[in-house]
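User: quick one, fold this
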Amino acid sequence: VRKEAEWEPVPVPSGHSAPVCDLVWHPSGFCMSVSTDQTTRVLAPAKSSPHWFELARAQIHGHDLTSLALLPTAHGVSIATGAEEKVVRVFDAPSLFLTSLQHLTGIAVSAEGAPLAAACPALGLSNKPIMDHTDLNAVALNADREIAGGKEMSEAAMPVLLALQSTPLEEQLLQST
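Assistant:
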C-alpha cells in the first residue's frame, strides 16, 4: 500500500493585494504599510538571510486604510492608522510581537509596559489589550459564554500566546499577529 505524502505548509511571499497608501520606517529597521486592501502589514528583514518577509498583520479593517503614523514612545512600538471612515485608531505592539521581531530579525525593541497580547472580544470589531494572565483568563471565561445567535467563540478566535519561531505562515498572519 502506497502512503500518500502529507502536505506541509510553508511560508510564501506575501504582501498587499491592492495599492499601498502609506508606509513608515521604524528607526530600528523594519517597515509598516497600509493599503486599500484594508490591512496594516509589518515587513522586516530576516536575520538568517538577505530577504524580507511579512512578520505580522497588525490590523485587518472593514474600510480601506489610507494613513499610517509611527507614534513617539519611550518603549515598544505604537502606531496610528486612519481609514476612509475618518476614525484614527492607535495600536501598541504587544510584547509577543516584539519578542517575535527580535527572534526572527535580531531587531530589539523594548517591551516594557507593552500589553502581553491582544484579542477581539465576541461581537467586537477592535482588539483589546491583554496585559497579563488575569486578562487572558477573562477572555477565556467570556469564550465559554454564548454570544448572539447561540454560537460560542471558537478556539481559533482565542489569542495565541506564543512568539513566532520561524517565518509566519499565512494562517498565522491571519489569526495570530
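User: anything notable?
Assistant: The beta strands are 20-25, 31-35, 39-45, 52-60, 65-71, 78-83, 88-92, 117-119, 128-130.
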